[in-house]
Amino acid sequence: MKQFHTFRLDTVNHCLWRGEERVSLAPKAFDVLRYLVEHADRLVTQDEILNALWPETYVNPEVIKKYVLGIRKALGDPRDNPEFIETFPRRGYQFIAPVSEVISGAPTGCGISTTRKMVGREGAMAELNDYLSQALNSQRQVVFITGEAGIGKTTLVDAFHQSIANRPNVRIIRGQCVEGFGGKEAYYPVLEAIGQWVREASSGQVVQTLAKQAPTWLIQFPSLIKAEQREALQKEIHGATRERMVREICEALESLTAQDPLVLILEDLHWVDPSTLDFLSAVARRRGPAKLLLLGTYRPADLILSKSPLKALKQDLVLHDLSHEINLERLEEPDVAEYLEIHFANGDFPKTFANLIYRHSGGNALFMVNILLDMVKRGLVGQIDGIWKLKVALEDVEPRVPETLDQLIEAQFQQLSAEEQCILRSASVAGERFSVWAISTAAEMESDAIEDICERLAERLQFIKAAGINALANGQISAHYEFRHSLYREVLYRRLSDVARSKLHLHLAQRLQASCDPCEEEQSTELALHFEGGRDYEEAIRYLIVAAKNAARRFAYRDSIEILGHALELASRVTAGHRVEMRTQVLVQIGDIHYAVGNMDESAQAYEKAAAMAAESSLGTAQVTALLRLVHTMGLIDVDRAVEAVEQANQISASLSDPILHARTQMLAPCARLYYHTWRSQDAELFAAGKETIDRLTGGIYPEMHYAHLHPLQGRYREALRIAEDGILKVIETSNTVAYLLALGMKAVALMHLGRLGETHQLLRAAIERAEKNGNDPWVLKIREAWLHTAGMDFAGAQELCTAMIRSNSGYPTGQPKAIAWFAAGNAALLEGRHDEALQDFRRVIDENVTPKFFLHWYWRIHAQFGLVNAWLAAGNLEEARVEAGRLLEAALATADPSLQALAWEAKARLGMAEKNWQSAEESVQNGQVILEKFEIPTAAWRVDGTAWDFYQQTNNQKAAETHRKRAEACILKITNSFAPEEPLRATFLAAAPIRRILGENVPAKVSRQPKLRHGAAH
Ligand SMILES: Nc1ncnc2c1ncn2[C@@H]1O[C@H](COP(=O)(O)OP(=O)(O)O)[C@@H](O)[C@H]1O
Ligand SMILES: [Mg+2]
After folding, report:
1. Ligand 1 pocket test target in 18, 327, 366 with most atoms within 8 Å of CB
2. What is the spatial distance between Cα 815 and Cα 819, in angstroms, rounded to a whole number?
3. Concatenated DSSP letters for 926-939?
4. Which ligand is nearest to the CA of 174?
5. Which residue's CA is the nearest one to ligand 1's atom 12?
6. Report field, pTM of the whole predicted structure over 0.70
């Protein structure tokens, strides 16, 4: 460690110490100082600094000037007579103070010897060292340092930090909770600490570990992710949950601390957010080895006031011996005496002076320090001939000491100039740490003037201290300051009148808003706080919605809902004119978050409420918006309500003058009827017309995902595949898990129709496993998987999957898995010659009283109809078979689905053959072939060609027969070859009797031949 004067530069942990006090410096300012110190023997030019610190980007040399200015301030180095940094105008800088190297000695055992200013606390320091030793022994330690404001928690932590900073390999990282961020910034202090770690040049290993073990955390630091990594990473973590996020960071920390110890300091946990609490709880409860010492500080009284769940957590942890507490007692009288000795070296005070200070301060360190400072300032204590003395009689001091720390701060404040007061008032609203820039409009002064005044206050050790020069969100550089202790800020903030306070908040909010438009995501919480304080509730709600989305990106959905709950409260304070509108807006957001994670009932409730509320106040647009969202949710749980909602939306939007909104409802209404009721060509036309209108109105940018299912229903499988693949790329950037699963499901359906069953299987398996690992319910994918098994002739497998789904009680309706299970059971029974059972099963699928409607229920019912024809044919009941085949054909021809139609003709052809009605059979065979010419549908084609083969054999046209058998075989091989050789589903498919019949002797070995297909048709 480099030392100069009382300063020490800790290059491992990137911090600067003045004695035992940590001096705040922005990371770049630290780098500049470090560079100067490391080259202290010579002049360093601006270019050299630029090349060394910003090798890849262009930076205005002015910036260096600003940073040096900031460093000077932090060091307290006067420009005209510098002690540390000398400026050579237009050339550069030289570090002129003597620099020495502090040898990083062996651990001292107790840090007290390196600290000069801290008094007392020997016991606490010894305890901390003890915990550290245990941590070094791979026994993780969670330690809470508690005590009232100003008792000395931060001082203790700093002293400990400093005492171990010299130890080789011990890493120390810190995060700070911020008042007001509690419920709104998930993992704030943890992200701060980890962020500081990973951004350092030497942190390659940390980044790698995060990439491997904690991708949900790595993604929170976008600048660390290479563009080509991003997509894979997004895919890997999509739909992650809180549990996974917490587990991952624990695992990563365990890996990282297997060798080198880590001290993680989280300060002021009385303002902690619930997600950080999850983290704390998990770290404390996990049992694996880790050289980890987690130190958290908080004020117990504030926990009670804020009803923070930390209280219960800590009690539980202590009870189970999973954490320790160091409760800082007040300083004792001898400590005060020692403090006097250290700080007034060479002092000569009456014996009872320490007792007086002790009594008044009650042993609160901050109070003690302040009383003494105040006495010096007021001339009660001063130097006479170089010796510190009490300048008045001891009895005269007593009445002049304020009763409480608050009063003392108040009195100090009163003595400041009007300008100083004004600046501090604004600053108290801005926060513990503030930029001169931010408060400049509220204080109505030029930035330079404000900076000068802040500088003077800092020099006089009053209220604030310099916190370096930092870049703002808008790229501007501004000096920052922070309160010497949060109590100062709290006292000043409390004494503001309501009116003054909200005015200042509003000023700040507007100033911040102007600075950060492109990056509002980062500052949304702060903006929301200030707008709320400034009573601009509409703006506050706007930013809370952004904050809720941020929380969702951190997989903290519970926090998202909480943030929106707060927004809903604020909505009731919005002026009457906009109140309902704001409420419905927030409710829709709440519905969205629930939808995204699959809480369909809650999602529906929120949308219903929003719609009802909007209806009551005749807010048409808001009502339609809520209803349209409701359609998507209800589509998964109650399709009749979905159709009802969209019809209602359609009616209302017709009377609004919002053409895009109306076009949306006009497109969605027929679409919903097609999905949830039945296929009708009029609706398909209405949809197409609606789509044309909206493309015209929006320039064709309207998202297509939801409508993509219409394509396969009309035989446009490749179009469906393209949209699904595009959709997956888009939705992966969001945190909408359900939309992502639906997009994957869409892709699976398209692939399946194209005969690529093996790929479909792999896609679904991987996605289901990922979703389950993430703790999501991949219900929509499991349905597709069961569907796939029916297409692959694995009816037992399909049944099993459906039964598991029904049993899992996922909260989704069971109509669809039941229908697929019966359909599969019917087919299995058919293959085994149990026709009666098959009939029963297929009838169950068709009967709406047994199987209520679900998404595309009619599609499954038509398939069951096909099953009925087969069952009657197999039973030899031609009468019934004819009736059902007629119904089947009628139903299939009413759709636009080539696959259903081809199968209906195929069934009719078999009926014709059974009846020896050769003309009808031939007609049906030909109709089936016409469809196969136009569409690539291998999953239906093998049956259709297989039947054509039979027909031509029976009618003695061997050549044509063989052509069709070959085609059927080619389709089967195409399907077979899409599977991996070892995939059991492939074997099941090949073993099915209807397949074997067609392949005859030609059953492919595991290494497959490339089939030749006749189609070029790419629909
Ligand atoms: N043990 C100590 N010895 C000397 N001064 C102390 C001690 N503890 C605290 N102080 C002084 O009191 C101030 C407030 O202490 P701090 O550690 O910030 O309190 P907390 O973090 O508990 O609110 C510090 O700035 C420091 O000047
Ligand atoms: Mg503190």
Report:
1. 366
2. 6
3. HHHHHHHHH---HH
4. 2
5. 366
6. yes
